[in-house]
Amino acid sequence: SLHMGHALNNTLQDVLVRFERMRGRDVLWQPGTDHAGIATQMVVERRLEAEGKRRADLGRDAFIVRVWQWKEQSGGTIINQLRRLGASCDWRRERFTMDEGLSRAVRRVFVELYRAGLIYKDQRLVNWDCKLHTAISDLEVQNREVKGKLWHIRYPLEGEPDRFIVVATTRPETMLGDSAIAVHPDDPRYRDLIGRHAMLPLVARRLPIVGDQHADPAQGSGAVKITPAHDFNDFEVGRRHGLELINILDADARINDNAPEKYRGLDRAAARAAVLADLEALGMIARIDEHTHTLPFGDRSGEVIEPWLTEQWYLDAKTLAKPAIEAVERGAVVFVPRQWENTYFEWMHHIQPWCISRQLWWGHQIPAWYGPDERVFVAMSEDEAMADARRHYGAAVALQRDPDVLDTWFSSQLWPFSTLGWPDKTAELARYYPTDVLVTGFDIIFFWVARMIMAGIHFMGSPPFHTVYVHALVRDELGQKMSKSKGNVMDPLEVIDRYGADALRFTLCAMAAQGRDIKLSEARVEGYRNFATKLWNAARFCLMNGCRPDPAFVPEDATETLNRWILGEGTRAAAAVTEALETYRYNEAAAAIYQFVWGTFCDWYIELAKPVLQGPDGPGKHETRAAAAHLLNQILRLLHPVMPFITEELWAHFRGGGDDDLLIRAAWPDAGAGFVDTAADDEMRWVIDLVARIRSVRNEANVPAGAQIPIAHLRGASAATAARLARQAERIRTLARVSDIAVNDGAPPPGTVQFVHGEATVALPIGAIVDLAAERARLENEIDRVARDVERFEQKLANEGFLSRAPADVIEEQRERLADAMAARDKLAAALRTVATAGA
Description:
- By secondary structure, this protein is α/β, with parallel strands linked by helices.
- 47% of the residues lie in helices and 17% in strands.
- The protein contains 27 helices and 27 strands.
- A hairpin with a 4-residue loop joins β3 and β4.
- α9 (317-329) crosses α15 and α16 (492-499) crosses α17 (501-510).
């Protein structure tokens, strides 16, 4: 099901897709899903358990049939949810990683890589899920801190039974598989022991003492037991020193026959208890410490993951990584933000062989067949494998297919070209590969992004995309990761039901600053729902006042100062939104359109245009109607990529073409095609700033909203300002609630507030409306109260005890309260200064 991370990811993709489509580009956004091997198999197995069955009762073929049945019932859930979000994919081209075309591509890739020597079988450690009985990827492992113990165990030195080397371990049961002890070569405590042997308690195995950088003198005793078959780091130490690999666990994490008989068959927990009891009886436990350490858990099974030695299929990722590293180094692929390239390089330069096999039934079964002598035949089909075997053996033989399936990411890495018809040379492949932009989360840079680059270069000769935009995480409003256990998960579908998809999409874009996690709250979504309502009401007002698209309207020919100003503002908005989307700065694009729509068009232009629109007919009214409709048309096009639903609905009323025109097919506003009239800009900004300053004074002095200031005087105004005032006086009087406004250089009466505006001084006599002395006393009392709040929050945040004990969200809440109190104090102080200037 869709979660908020999916909502962010697909919203950002859809914004780019709609933006580029409107700019006239041939856009293909091909939807699809992967088969999610482990997750899907677990779902179907749970359904079987409810029927009292296991998959073994059905057999492989019948089980696979059940999985396909479940996929047909539930597989389209997330696709339908993406439609609700507004994703404008080419739904006719939906693909699934297990469909026949993609399955053929997977077999082709496996066969080619195998024949090139890049796929092979090997015995290495894997993340083994003891419940699911399969290897899993690092992405499916959750590392959690747990409280445990650190046991310090004495290992007797060979030939000196009274002398010991002490090792520290959190997993004493694995000592049954020890094959060495490692110490740091520069550790003076153990330098003389390197090259000698210790005896393994309980087993009496000779353990060489080796010098290796892996041993940290500052950790534990400085000596480390090396169990190459049960620890990833130990495995590497074992390879460096040629140590024996002793696997002492079976697939269920029970002790196997490689351990002394008394421990065989015990599970991990029971084996640990037995080993510790025997060590205690021998006096081999030197010390036990309480110890917090990290354990790996399977994200699906919830079981502790066991590093387990087993034979698996591997891909030589190191060879494929070399050209993929060079592609990013030379700029053929660019990460946005650029810092994620460092993450990419760090992993790629230290890349390990990729374990591509999984012990599952659901997935792409590995196209390998075994002969009677275990010789492997890798082919596109069983018939081809049989033919190869016949040539090898000189006669037909029975073959057994490898039961394992491929890691889900193996097929997903082929997505950019397999979905376009590869390995066939299709027209779509020739036209759309390489693609342009990948939008993804940082957590799959290794598992998907890097592998797509490697596969694309190897099979197609070029990287699959030129840009990788990496978005951040969606967290709750306190910055905490969303989780069901915390109860802070926001279901995007519930949010859509409550506030609409447009509001959710705008919120996600507005907060998607590069490199910064999104702190999402319903209050923010509600705020952008109000933005949609504001746009809707503005459009209704324009329609009610006769604003309709006029094909004959030419913006450059407008004569009204107000209209020339707003048309210039529209030009600036189009340029800002275009530039932001071109550089993947979604938050800046959202901010630019928000400011233009709400702050400029709705709050100022419509208010300033009301006297004309609601006045007598004439050329000015006709032009203003046409200009307003033209601007709404432009707003809908600029806003469409982010808020597709409301804009498409309003477009039906303000479109410029025929009845069957849709906004999704409309042209993007040409940011360079508009014009800016600097004289109109200067005049209207002068008006807006003057009205804003008068409103600020009214607010600070607590002038009643319905009261009109009797007159506003401009003192020291130039002739140009006087002329400007004469043209705009009616608008200023209406918006600022001033009975009259005039140029007057005489002395202002008592109780007047003055401020400088341009070269003139504006005088507002408010003393007759407001009891200035009472207002001053009120403000002083409010300032004292808020100052006490500021002092209280500052003291709390200066308390080291509070900072060390309080949860992070509580501390952040106190900081926010302090910031709010300080802002309120500053606002009240400004109001007091305003009242004071009036002579109170």
